[in-house]
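Quick question about two entries, pasted in order.
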Amino acid sequence: MLIVFEGVDGCGKSTQYARYKSELTRRGTEYLPLSFPRYEEKSSALIKMYLGGELGGSPDAVNAFAASSFYAVDRYASFVSGWSEDYNAGRLIVTDRYTTSNAIHQGAKLAAEERADYFRWLKDYEFRKIGLPEPDLTLYFRISAELSAERISARGQKKDIHERDINYLKRCVQSADAAADYFGWRIIDASNTEEKVFQEVICKCPI
């Protein structure tokens, strides 16, 4: 089974992912944890160039289809060289981000009326043509763009080209909402306290 934790930047997804893993371990449930992009691997080279602004100073400098390929290649390399056997053996796999991130961040570059066509293309491209497995369950941690920007600023870290563009963050939320509806993601209200969010995670993703 493949479970994906997904959401816009600053939604608290990674915190909930860490808590969920700890709960799996506490209960003695065997699983394989994954996280994307894999910045420490060679396959992420184009992603780092893109996010660092080397291919243009704004997210829109690289079109949705080209940027989607950067991330898809990293996931493909991970799958064929790392976890394909685990997946084919039926092992539980839990991942922080996945192909779902393309739906959010690259779909944000398109007009609202173009997103459904992009989602269809993305599903065919990553799951059919490339051969990555489809998620069995995706948890979408939903927050507003304003709260996203607030939480990102609170980190005090250097921002990438996605994180420093509030208009882009707004479009990401819109694209994520559309993707959640299109792909059937389970929506988590990530504006609540960490504990309330985690209880909702356990409710919507039973261990």
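Here is the second entry:
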Amino acid sequence: MPDTAQCRVCSGTVEEFFDFGRQPLADAFVTPGQTDGEFFYRMAVGMCQSCTMVQLMEEVPRQRMFHEDYPYLSSGSSVMRTHFEKTAEHFLNTELTGPDPFIVEFGSNDGIMLKSLADRGIRHLGVEPSGGVADMAAAKGIRVRKSFFEESSALEIAASDGQADVIYAANTFSHIAYVDSIFRGVKALLAPNGVFVFEDPYFLEIVERTSFDQIYDEHFYFFAVRSVQAMAAQYGLELVHVERLPVHGGEVRYTVAHAGARPVSPAVGELLTEEDARRLTDPGTLQGFGASVNKTREQLMGLLQDIRAQGGRVVGYGATAKSATVINYCGITPELVDFICDTTPAKQGKLTPGSHIPVRDAKAFAEPYPDYALLFAWNHADEIMAKERDFRMAGGRWILYTPEVKVV
């Protein structure tokens, strides 16, 4: 019998369908010589038999993940900067057209989306618990509250600023296990005709691309249209629109409103039909996903070991949070991957969590070029490969592992 847990959304029974074993915190890069005391947990994923929400079987305490030294920056990619600028324009043209519009973004990070709105004079508030990135946003002139978004903070915001026309979250809502408090907060803070808009990795894409590295400690939920629809309804809200997005390997932008406040877009029914056609919630589909994960591990490790046996040199590209899953589940070591280059200063000079592969400045990639580059930041493949054209010209080859292991 598979392990079970209680669903954090509807209190139904969650049945485990894959176990990634002992995993570290994905963003807990460690200082050389100070590797003792790393936090590990069992990372397994299951699906609720009632509401179909896919979720981790165990929750990592939020303070361990989101803190003063949290290293991820939303503005680190030109693709994402463009995405958030377009998102801001979308809100300006649709939801923020009244006399004194107000938008709240939780998980606002370094303020890349709110900056465009602040520059237009839009009343706004970022809610960000990670102090370092919150300070970066404040330095750009963005109004930021350093706290977690939950019912208590939402009530305080509503009392001081009034209700919001838009509540927005990008790659944040799926991180938060306590959805009951989030939705009570949204209900209190959202204006009668306002919208709660959030975008997160799409579970259908994860299954079809075998992008299992999207599963790590910070991602507690893995949303699909059916499970989000059920979740919203439980709190007197309604899923009124969905839009597929190409960023981060395939996401969906969900738009939720007060029940009955807005018509439901045909796009909702269309994606529900697609999920049913792909048998997304069938046990056989989930078992097939697990088999594909193990096949990827076997093929990737075989390739890396063969390259090393032939005297080749491999360097990782992008010390992403999701790389922790593939590195630790596959068992990739510094003997197989010399180091990982990354543009984030906070990660440079550190070691990857669990596996202790050195992280170096991006300039080290060309000093000299390796024979192969294992692309952990595969969701930015086009941007990175265009930037690193000289690597290919020098005879270097890229290793990709989603949707399948291949060398290009």
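Reply: Residues 283-309 form the longest helix (27 residues). The CA atoms of residues 236 and 259 lie 6 Å apart. Hope that helps.
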